[in-house]
Structure formats: structure tokens, C-alpha cells
Amino acid sequence: MTGSFPTRDNRRPELTVREALSNPQSDFSRVVLPPMSFAHEQDKIDNRRPAAEAFIRDHKLNEVFGPREAPVGLVLQGGMYNSVIRALQRLGLADIHGDSRVPLYVLNVTYPLVPDEFLSFCEGKDQVLTIEEGQPEFIEQQLATCLYRAGSAVKLRGKDILPMAGEYTGQVMLDGIGQFLREAAPGILPAQILAPNEERPPLPDLSKTVPIRPPGFCTGCPERPIFAAMKLVQKETGKLQISADIGCHLFAALPPFEIGGATMGYGLGPAANAAFDGGGERRPVAIIGDGGFWHNGLSSSFTNMAFNKSDGVAVIVDNYYSAATGGQDVMSSRADNPTKSTQNPISRALKGIGINWVRQVDRTYDVGKMRDLLREALTTDAPGPRASSPLRNAC
Ligand SMILES: Cc1ncc(C[n+]2csc(CCOP(=O)(O)OP(=O)(O)O)c2C)c(N)n1
Ligand code: SF4
Questions:
Q1: Over the stretch 183-195, which tens digit does the pLDDT of each residue have?
Q2: Ligand nearest to the CA of 321
Q3: Closest CA to 144 of 80, 69, 77, 75
Q4: Distance, CA 18 to ligand 2 centroid (Å)?
Q5: Residue 19: which H helix or E strand, with range?
Q6: Which CATH architecture has domain 224-389?
Q7: Is the CB of 291 under 6 A from ligand 1?
Q8: Closest residue (by CA) to atom 7 of ligand 2?
Q9: SS3 of residue 221 by DSSP
Q10: Can you give the pTM of this predicted structure?
């Protein structure tokens, strides 16, 4: 989809960085520590929350569509709107322009909810269906409390009809809204829709015949051969304890590699493996990207390895960028970036914290070389930690 919208001209901020720097201000009553935090809590309930609700109401951030008078209504998160409209179209209750014959209260703001706005939507209705993906059903619970406190007789439906877990696909939405309307207001449905798709042939179960297609590395990805080499090494060593990190290299956790399924967080691959250090016959292996390395891997993972004299092996997948997020520069990127400090080799940082067994492979497509290096890292008598930086190809 494309579109356009009017904007106002950019405005100079009331306080510039220069002014803020020249005249630093502090106010301990704004610090989130007791006893001020108790005052903040009161302020939030007495002033800030009502102000937020008033803003949402006054600026009409939530929207109401469809007829005012109807025995039923749908309350939905803004992001659900398109699928709800599609389901209503299929039920013969909306047209392609989104004109709905069922009232809709679209929550473009789901927090905070605006009780009086919701109660006014409910006026004159017998039943209202909350359409809220995910669990627990936070919105439904709040709306139920709201109706209860107002002494309303409106019946609130939601997760008793729609699934608690899983995506609200087109079919789920059609089934759920269809069931709600059949139960709550059958008269609203066009006659031929009351028993839709009865003559539909049964769908075959394709899960046994069509293989799943997990996401994977790009064709020609220079990270891919690292994991091919790891598979070869594991043929010799047996299955290794491999902890991975966040980034494209995590595609290796899926078939056909199934390497590094244990992942704790960004920059934490080697840190996560600390629990296995020195505990068995084979060294634990960790994988981390260059982005993860600079994000906090240098401190959380590598300083930790160096400090604890780890016996493990860390593989740093260095492709010059944070690739999975779109190719942003990091400290060791090769690009000349006028506003950033680049070209700082990872190996220098490692040596700086006392990790001396560092090897580098410049061309990962040489799977044999990669395999031999990994084998060496897993068997060398040189004291750990061991880090190999096996990727100098840009992707
Ligand atoms: C805890 C956490 N923080 C941030 C992200 C977002 N994220 C996903 S991939 C990625 C960058 C990974 O870059 P790098 O480590 O260089 O690996 P590459 O993609 O280049 O293989 C980031 C920041 C995330 N998924 N999880
Ligand atoms: S973006 Fe780069 S690192 Fe990521 S899968 Fe594709 S080629 Fe590999």
C-alpha cells in the first residue's frame, strides 16, 4: 500500500542540545526512587492517566464504524481491522469499502482504555465480542470489569469463542465472528450465509506430504559454509554443545543444520555457554555475530570467558555489518563512515582483554579449511579461551 498525508513543518525544539548542555538541570523529585516514586504513582492515577484518556477521546484516536443501533457490536484492536472487515465481507455484512452493517469500536489505542467511550458504544446492545489476539486476554478482562462496575447487562464475549493462542488468520476470524453472530444476532446474517461452505470438499491434511519450509540463509551466504563445516566436525567429535546468538547466523538453528538452537540473547552466545565450561570431554562452542560482539558480547561474553579462563571455543561470524537488521555498520565494519569509528578489528579487542588464541579465516567458502580450524580449536592444547573469526567475506 502507498499513501500520502499532510504534515506540519519541522519545528525547532524548545530546548536545544546546546542549551541543555550549557544549563544542565536536575530535580530529584523526578528520580524514580522512593519516596518520590510513590508520588509518581499518585500523579499517574490522578493526573496523567485521565489526561491520556482525555487526549484519546478528544482527538478521536479510537474509531467507531457501522450503524449506531444494533443488538451486537465488535470491539477490536486496530491491527485486526482489515481481517475483521474481510470476515464481515464474507459474511455479507460489509462491502469492499469497509462499510459495515455491524457496529465496530476500533481500539487504535489499547492502553489506556477509555471506559466511558466503551460504555457509550455498548449502549443499547445485548452482546459485544472482543477481538484481541494473544493471551492473557488483557483487553477483555478490562472491558468486563468496566461493564461490571457500570452495572451493565451487556454480555461480553471474546476468548470463549475466539482462540486463546495462535494467530487470528482470515479463517479463524471468519469462524469466530460467524459463530458470535449466529449465536447473538442470527437475524443480522443474510439467509444464505447462515450455514456457509457446507458443500466445501474436506481439506486434505498436507502436513505429511508437504515438507515444512523454515527460513534459511540467502543463496550464496558466506555464513552458510561455517555451519556446513561444523556439521563435518561433529561427525568426528559427536554432537557438540553449541550456544548461538541473535543474527542471520541463527538460521543455522533450523534444518538442514540444526546447530545452536540454544540462544539466550544478543551478545550472549558465549556467556550462555559459561555453564558448560570445563564440565566434560568436549569443549562447548558458542557462535556470535560481529554485531553481537560489539553490542555487549565484548563485555558479557568475552571478558567473562577471559576472566574465568574459559576452556570453550567462540566462533565470531564477522561479515562487516549487522546483517539481519539490514546492514548497519559496527565498530569493525570495513566501510568508511564519516560519522562513525569503523575499521577496528575484533582481533585487537580480543587481544586487549587477554584472549590470545585467535584465528581468522578470510574465505569461508573453503569448507575444508573451516572444518580444520574448528577441529584445531576443539583439540589444541593451547590454553583457552579460543576465538575464531571465520568470516571476512561481506554478504
Ligand atoms: C535481544 C535482541 N536484541 C536485538 C534484536 C534485533 N536483532 C536481530 S538480528 C540483529 C543484528 C545481528 O547482527 P550480527 O550479530 O552482526 O549478526 P548477522 O546478522 O550479521 O549474522 C539484531 C540487533 C533481537 N532479535 N534480540
Ligand atoms: S543477509 Fe547476508 S548474512 Fe544474512 S543470510 Fe543473507 S547473505 Fe547471509
A1: 999 999 987 654 5
A2: 1
A3: 75
A4: 41
A5: helix 17-22
A6: 3-Layer(aba) Sandwich (3.40)
A7: yes
A8: 221
A9: coil
A10: 0.78
All three cell numbers of 222: 558466506
Q: How far is CA 174 from the centre of its chain?
A: 26
Q: What length is written for the chain?
A: 395
CATH top class, domain 63-193: alpha beta
CATH 3.40.50.970 residue spans of the chain? 224-389
Residue 290: predicted pLDDT: 95
Q: Which atom of ligand 2 is nearest to 220's Cα? A: 7
What residue's CA is closest to ligand 2, atom 4?
248
Beta carbons of 311 and 281 less than 8 angstroms apart:
no
C-alpha grid cell for residue 60? Answer: 478521536
Query: Which residues share a beta bridge with 289?
Result: 317
Q: Which three cell numbers stand for residue 325?
A: 537488521
User: Look-up: residue for cell 559454509?
Assistant: 225
Q: What is the Å distance from ligand 2's center to 394 Cα?
A: 9
Ligand 2: which of 221, 365, 393 to mutate, most ligand atoms within 8 Å of CB? 221
> Which cell numbers in the block locate residue 72?
451486537
23 SS3 class: coil
Residue 389 has pLDDT above 70, yes or no: no
Please tell me the distance from the alpha carbon of residue 171 to that of residue 260, in angstroms, as a whole number.
Answer: 35
The amino acid present at 328, given as its one-letter code, is Q
Q: What would the pLDDT profile of 114-151 be if each residue is shown by its tens digit?
A: 999 999 999 999 999 999 999 999 999 999 999 999 99
Q: What share of the chain is helix, strand, coil (3-state, %, to 5)?
A: 40, 15, 50
- DSSP states of 351-367: HHTT--EEEE-S-TT-H
Supply the pLDDT for residue 191.
74
